[in-house]
Amino acid sequence: MSDILDVARTQVLDQGIGLSEEQALECLRLPDERVDELLDLAHDVRMKWCGDEVEVEGIVSLKTGGCPEDCHFCSQSGVFDSPVRSAWLDIPSLVKAAQETAQTGATEFCIVAAVRGPDERLMAQVRDGVAAINAVVDINIACSLGMLTQAQVDELAELGVHRYNHNLETARSYFGNVVTTHSFDERIDTCQMVRKAGMELCCGGILGMGETVEQRAEFAAQLAALDPDEVPLNFLNPRPGTPFGEQEPMTAVDALRAVATFRLVMPRTVLRFAGGREVTLGDLAERGVRGGINAVIVGNYLTTLGRPADEDLAMLADLKMPIKALAKNL
Amino acid sequence: MFCDRCGGDLAIGTHEGCEAARHLEPPRYCVHCRRRMVVQVTPTGWTARCVEHGELVS
Question: Which ipTM did the prediction report?
Answer without folding.
Answer: 0.94
